[in-house]
Amino acid sequence: QDIGGPVSVNGSFYGPLQFRNIAKPVRFQSERTDLRVEKVSGQLFTDLRELTGRNLVGPISLDTRSRDIQLEDFTGELKLAVDRGDITLRPAQATLARIEARTGRGKIELALPDAAKFQLRATTEQGEVYNDFGPALKSDSEGRRATLQSTATQGPEIVLTTDRGSITVRKDTGAPLEGAPKSRGLPEEPGRRPRVEKY
C-alpha cells in the first residue's frame, strides 16, 4: 500500500494478496498466474478463486488458469486470458483502448459507455450472445456457435472469446454488474497494511 516505486511478487501464494495505491508497475507471477499492471490507482485483490481490480491503469496483461475476473474503471489496453472462469469488465468512462479477453470455459460480461466508439468482435463456440447495447451491435448464430459484432468501423478493437459460455454486452448504467463475483477481499481499513500469508 502507498508504494512510490515498482512492486514485484513472485511465488505460489495461497492466501489473499491485496495492492493499493501503487504508483509504478506491479507484477505478480506464480505457476498459475502472470499479471502485469502499469499502475494501481485504486486497489487490486486476488486469491485462488478470483481477481478483482478497480482504478487500474494499463497496459494490463493477465494470464491465469482458473479464476473469476472482475475489473472496473480501468484505463489503457487490456489483454486477458483465463483457462476457466467468468470475466466481468467495466472500463472507465474515458476514451476506450483495445480490449482482448478470452476464457476457455466461462461467461463474459462487458459494460460500455453509451457514447463509446469501438469495433467489437465477440464469439462463443458453444453458448449464446446477448446484445443489451442496442442497434450498434449485430448478433448471428450457427449451430452452437454465436457471434456479436459492431456495425461501426471506428474506435479501438474489442475482442471477446469463450469456448463454452455466454457473452453479454450492455450499456454502462452504473448498476452493479450481473456477472460480478462476490468479493472476498480484505476489509477497507485506511492506514492498515493488509496481511499476506504464505503457506
What is the strand and helix layout of this fold?
Elements (H helix, E strand, L loop, with lengths): L6 E4 L6 E6 L3 E4 L3 E14 L3 E17 L1 E7 L3 E7 L2 E5 L7 E7 L2 E5 L6 E6 L4 E4 L4 E6 L2 E6 L6 E8 L2 E5 L28
Parallel strand pairs: 1-3, 5-6, 5-7, 6-8, 7-9, 8-10, 9-15, 10-16, 11-15, 12-16
Antiparallel strand pairs: 2-4, 3-4, 4-5, 11-14, 13-14
Give structural attributes.
199 residues, 16-stranded mixed beta sheet, 16 strands, 0% helix, 56% strand
Overview of this protein structure:
- By secondary structure, this protein is mostly beta strands.
- 0% of the residues lie in helices and 56% in strands.
- It contains no helices and 16 strands.
- It has strands spanning 7-10, 17-22, 26-29, 33-46, 50-66, 68-74, 78-84, 87-91, 99-105, 108-112, 119-124, 129-132, 137-142, 145-150, 157-164, 167-171.
- It has a 16-stranded mixed β-sheet that branches.
- β13 (137-142) and β14 form a beta hairpin.
- The radius of gyration is 17 Å and the shape is globular.
Describe this structure in a few short sentences:
By secondary structure, the chain is an all-beta fold.
Distance between the termini: 22 Å
Q: Ranges with pLDDT <50 over ≥5 residues?
A: 180-199
The structural class is mainly beta
Number of DSSP strand runs:
16
**Overall radius of gyration:** 17 Å
Helix content: under 10%
